[in-house]
Amino acid sequence: MKELIKIDPFGFREYDARWLYPENINLLGIENLGKGLGSQIIKHTQKNNPRVVIGYDYRSYSEEIKESLKKGLISTGCLIEDLGLSLSPMVYFAQFNLNSDAVAMVTASHNENGWTGVKMGIKKGLTHAPDEMKELKEITLKENFIKGKGNEKIIKDFQKIYKNDLIKKNKINKKIKAVVACGNGTAGIFAPDILKGIGCEVIELDCKLDWTFPKYNPNPEDMEMLHAISKAVKDNNADIGFGFDGDGDRCGVIDNEGNEIFSDKIGLLIARNLSAKHNKSKFIVDVKSTGLFNTDKVLISNDCKTIYWKTGHSHIKRKVNSENALAGFEKSGHFFFNQPLGYGYDDGINSAIQVCHLLENQNKKMSEIIKELPNTYQSPTMAPFCKDEEKYTVVEDLVKQVQEFHDKKIKIDNQEIKEVLTVNGVRFSFKDGSWGLIRASSNKPSLVVVTESPTSDERKKKIFDFIDGLLQKTGKIGEYDQKI
Asked: Domain with 15 in it: what CATH number?
């Protein structure tokens, strides 16, 4: 019996495509995705044989996914340039270095084993955003494919070109001892070499590739991974700890005392460090990020402007590009450096390098530098389960409810809501700088909840209790992945 094409429409997400494999997509479905992407690339580049750079992460099934994707792309006329085992930022870099027309990276990033997906882009340095994803979904599901004759070639030793590009521009003189943790994901064959190359003394933690991820998922927002890095930093008396996700586009940071620093605070420190040399710069941050960007005295004195924007690597990347911002920071650890620091895309290793520059310039310990920021009480990113087909409607309804609290001046923990930002879900702020956020996750069946208060841990919790109360009343919320 002929195998049927399987491709769950919900896998086409806001800015990439992700499925459980083989439950929600099979290899024939992946091949059709390749045909859809190839047809889309040809339509936008107006070329019969566009050149497409392709790479894949270190999961047991990523290579077979890549082969099926290539088959689909080639059938439309695309000329494939296969980099082999890659990080997402290496594939993005290759588009500039090889001057190709588009990119496709087979990865499910930090999602657990069993997930697969593709990050893709046509315009250099940018990845698909909702409009492109909608178009791709339509072409693929309606099978409006272009037929053509393509081919493929293997690009050898590109890993070395990518590593050397980061090393040669970023040598440091200060001896920095860094714990480099990769959770047995793909970054393990990149991050230690690059950080040693710029001049760091590197202590490797779980850098050996192992697609079973025996200890924990390579995800720098995962508490288990952060605790392991913290222990290694203290045991080795290191200056800093870095944790990289599965495809190397995100970085988490632990200070010399073993304390986790949320990535939005690291972003603020990097922005401060850059603002002295690049005054009047713009920075883009996502709605999950600390409110301190708005009130930071160093950024204000250097005449820099911060714009809060939609969460998601594609959204921030595009905003950095359209605003010609110097850098963009996401709380999840995606950092984007524009010229002259980078090409505008997110690269976890370049983020770690910028932290090394910060340590060298300030000539202080990381724990001292972080203490210069006003103290705030931040929640981790919390994800309560909510079905993909219900999550956006649930959030729309909550936006209205929060707006009503604001309009009617109803108090939460004895405070009125001062401002409501609805660029991505709803972020509501109070006079003292405390805030809460509810939005739909872009890549999982869940919502995203974050709270922060510069006033007290108690207020941070009260704002969470308020949000959780609204959520529970919907009757559409399941378990949280973690909560305060």
From this structure: 3.40.120.10
Q: Residue 66 and residue 34: Cα distance in Å, rounded?
A: 9
350-374 in b/e form (b: 16+ CB < 10 A) is bbbbbbbbbbeebeeebeebbeebe
pLDDT per residue as tens digits for the range 136-162: 999 999 999 999 999 999 999 999 999
Kindly give the pairing relationship between strand 201-205 and strand 177-181.
parallel
Q: Enumerate residues 6+ apart whose C-beta is below 8 A from 369.
A: 269, 358, 359, 362
List the one residue out of 164, 355, 100 whose CA is nearest residue 251.
Answer: 355
> What is the CB-side half-sphere exposure of residue 83 using CA atoms within 13 A?
30
Do the Cβ atoms of 129 and 159 come closer than 8 Å? no
Q: Is residue 483 part of a domain?
A: no
**431, 456: one domain:** yes
The number of domains in the chain is: 3
Nearest to 362 by CA among 269, 453, 284: 269
Tell me if 64 sits within 8 A of 43, measured CB to CB: no
Q: Give the separation between CA 358 and CA 272, rounded to whole angstroms.
A: 9
Task: Characterize 2-40 residue by residue with b for buried, 16 or more Cβ atoms within 10 angstroms of its Cβ, and e for exposed.
Answer: eeeebbeeebbbbbbbbbebeebbbbbbbbbbbbbbbbb
Residue 204 in domain:
yes
Helix (H, G, I), strand (E, B) or coil at 311: coil
Nearest to 53 by CA among 120, 140, 3: 120
CB 401 within 8 A of CB 470: yes
Tell me: the pLDDT tens digits for 47-94? 999 999 999 999 999 999 999 999 999 999 999 999 999 999 999 999
Give the CA distances from residue 411 to residues 172, 331, 466, in Å, rounded to whole numbers and listed in that order: 51, 28, 11
The three-class DSSP label of residue 446 is strand
Same domain for 239 and 272, yes or no, is: yes
The residue among 371, 405, 435 that closes a domain is 371
Predicted structure pTM score: 0.90
CA–CA distance, 166 with 182 (Å, rounded to integer): 18
Asked, for residue 479, whether it belongs to a domain, the answer is no
| Maximum pairwise Cα distance, the chain | 70
**Which range marks the domain in which residue 35 is found?**
9-156
Per residue in 311-347, pLDDT tens? 988 899 999 999 999 999 998 889 999 999 999 999 9
For residues 149 and 232, what is the distance between their CA atoms, to the nearest angstrom?
52
Pair 367, 462 in one domain:
no
Residue 433's region, left for phi above 0, alpha for psi from -120 to 50, else beta, is: left
